[in-house]
Amino acid sequence: xxxxxxxxxxxxxxxxxxxxxxxxxxxxxxxxxxxxxxxxxxxxxxxxxxxxxxxxxxxxxxxxxxxxxxxxxxxxxxxxxxxxxxxxxxxxxxxxxxxxxxxxxxxxxxxxxxxxxxxxxxxxxxxxxxxxxxxxxxxxxxxxxxxxxxxxxxxxxxxxxxxxxxxxxxxxxxxxxxxxxxxxxxxxxxxxxxxxxxxxxxxxxxxxxxxxxxxxxxxxxxxxxxxxxxxxxxxxxxxxxxxxxxxxxxxxxxxxxxxxxxxxxxxxxxxxxxxxxxxxxxxxxxxxxxxxxxxxxxxxxxxxxxxxxxxxxxxxxxxxxxxxxxxxxxxxxxxxxxxxxxxxxxxxxxxxxxxxxxxxxxxxxxxxxxxxxxxxxxxxxxxxxxxxxxxxxxxxxxxxxxxxxxxxxxxxxxxxxxxxxxxxxxxxxxxxxxxxxxxxxxxxxxxxxxxxxxxxxxxxxxxxxxxxxxxxxxxxxxxxxxxxxxxxxxxxxxxxxxxxxxxxxxxxxxxxxxxxxxxxxxxxxxxxx
Length: 529
Ligand code: KIV
Ligand code: ZN
Known about the structure:
The chain is α/β, with parallel strands linked by helices. 43% of the residues lie in helices and 19% in strands. The protein has 18 helices and 16 strands. The chain has helices spanning 17-21, 31-44, 58-70, 84-93, 110-117, 121-138, 154-166, 183-196, 216-225, 247-256, 258-261, 273-284, 305-313, 341-350, 357-371, 379-392, 434-446, 491-528, and strands at 9-10, 12-15, 48-52, 75-81, 100-107, 141-147, 171-176, 204-209, 230-233, 264-265, 398-405, 413-420, 423-430, 451-459, 468-475, 481-488. The strands form four sheets. An eight-stranded parallel barrel has the order 2-3-4-5-6-7-8-9, surrounded by seven helices. Strands 11-12-13 form a three-stranded antiparallel beta sheet. Strand 8 (204-209), helix 9 and strand 9 form a beta-alpha-beta unit. The protein is globular and about 75 Å long. The N and C termini lie far apart (72 Å). The chain binds 3-methyl-2-oxobutanoic acid (KIV) and zinc ion (ZN). 3-methyl-2-oxobutanoic acid binds at residues 20, 105, 145, 147, 173, 175, 177, 208, 210.
């Protein structure tokens, strides 16, 4: 029997959580966290992962290199400005795999040409063309973005697109950089580009929409309806300013509406969506608003009497998406203090965590401590524990002892002992409250200049015996934000862990930066000899 071929148009999903989202204030991630997110994006099945901007920092370079070598499946891309040094460094970071793409961009609108680049139309065009040509000599696949395309003169935009395709760009991405476009206008722009650029069919036409007017998803879908075949987006819609188009919204919209599903195909494993959203929330420390479409805590919660009654009688009355579709299903296995290591390992594997024997043992011990006090441990709690555990490996300072005296007229006093390379370091301090006392003690021991920017407490599940989760954000002298997250049955303990994690990241990154500087100095002095 002849094989049935799928005639639907493939829509490529290009995830830029590790680049566009990572560059937004407070969402920075360590190299290990970026690798964890990239591996989860591969499980989700995205087609392309933009892993970073290698020229921007040694940390980004290293992260892109690691992801290229370790993540199998999606094409990995790195971003570069239209400058020879950016392109060469990005090509270097992308070495080690055949599935790589170099993404280069330059501002083409009058605002960008005159305000930032101070270059004429001709000069910008030349920079774009020569950069694409240079990138094509170094990397097999090249994508080009005329930044601020929606505010670029149409004829000039057509010229830039045509010439960069001629120079070898395999993908042309049209960014609505400032989130200014309206859906019908943006759809029209994509259609007109397809009609006006003679060699447009030689490239994949992509879009990259920002959410300044709350229209990023609508604009991306309008573009798809008018012939765009790649969509750039991020998990939870994170990104510069108001963010990018949310990946989960785009793919679930295409999957939910029959008229879209009949025409387009996306090869994603939607059941991994919720888990991916949670992982990104955890590593970036950027909360997801409860009413966020698809992945918000209330996205599937029905509360008013009429709605609950309707859903119970017939689900479709008020529910257009089944929560199971995005991986939000209740575990069939109930984990209690009697569940052995094997059951915990099995459930963790189902949740997508492949732990080493050591990590599993430590997670199991933490699971037992929680399970001893609660009837059962939910998937969310288990994921929270494992997220904590996976990070302990990177801890420079570890919490060895914590005691707080407070209540009534007592001045809150904290005794904190940390371990670093086998040494025990202790401080005893007062504070205006218990958390303040603990934070002062930790800060006194670690003694690095920083500022606490944000402190957020929530419970992973309901009830007074729930696992509490604390997210903190601290800023270093240069203004870089470092995030920390901690969970525990005790909120003071969770607070200490979160703060310690943020400080550990800050110290770790300062160490990497110092090592990179001295390595560069050594290389330079060798070169002079
Ligand atoms: O928003 C934008 O224009 C970008 C480009 C680098 C694609 O992020
Ligand atoms: Zn962007």
